[in-house]
C-alpha cells in the first residue's frame, strides 16, 4: 500500500499508531509494524511501546518546515507547548472587584509592580515574582506573586480573562495585557505578602506612587526558576 504525492514523492505504509481513549480523559498509544499482504491489504504486527527517540523523530518530521523564531532577551525557556519569560519592575494599572469590597478604593489605580516570571503551557498561565530586578538564572529562587486570583502554584484563575490562542513569542504582550485588564476578584490562598498590613495594606501603600515595589514584602519560595519552567514540585 502506497501513496504518491506529486511526481517525486512515493510513500509506503510501514508503521501505524493506534490511539486508545477512556472517556476522552486518558489516551494510550501503541506502535505497530505494517505488513502488506499479497492482495494489498495491510496487517498490523504486535504492539510496541513508543520510545522517546521515535516521538522526537516524528515531531521533527511533522514540524520540519516550521518557521524559526528569534527569541528576545526576556524569553527564558521555550518548547513547542510551553513559553516562559520575565518582565522587569514597572507601573501597571490594576482593577479590583470583590463582594466584600475590601479593595474598592484600589480599582483602576496605577501601582508599581515587582519583576515577574510568567509561564504559559496548554493555555494555562502561571506567575511568580522575582526579588531582584534582573534576568533570572536557572538557580534563581522565585517568590510568591502578590496578586489575587492565583493558586499556591502560581496558576492564574483566568475566569473571563482574554487569552491568546497560543504560546508564541508574539503572544507575550497579549498574555500580560489580559492578566492586567481583567479584574482581581478574590484571594485563592492565605498569605501572599510579608507586608504588615497584608494584601490591602501593601497595595494601598503603593497606589499611584512613584517608588519601587518593596523587596521585603515578598515571600521567597524554595522553588527555583528551572523547577518553575519544568512545572516540578518543590
Question: Could you explain how this protein is built, in words?
Answer:
The chain is of the alpha+beta class. The protein has helices at residues 52-63, 172-181, 198-206, 225-230, and strands at residues 2-5, 9-12, 15-22, 26-36, 42-48, 75-78, 82-87, 91-93, 110-112, 116-121, 124-129, 141-143, 220-224. The protein has a four-stranded antiparallel sheet with strand order 6-7-10-11, with no helix packed on it. The longest helix is centred in the first third of the chain and has 12 residues, at 52-63.
Question: What is the subunit organization of this protein?
Answer: single chain
Strand content: 25-35%
Helicity, as a percent range: 10-25%
Biggest sheet strand order reads: 6-7-10-11
* Helical segment count: 4
What separation lies between the terminal Cα atoms?
A: 51 Å
**Low-confidence spans:** none
Order of helices and strands: EEEEEHEEEEEEEHHEH
Question: Helix/strand-derived class?
Answer: alpha+beta
Give the radius of gyration: 24 Å
Mean pLDDT: 88
Number of separate domains = 2
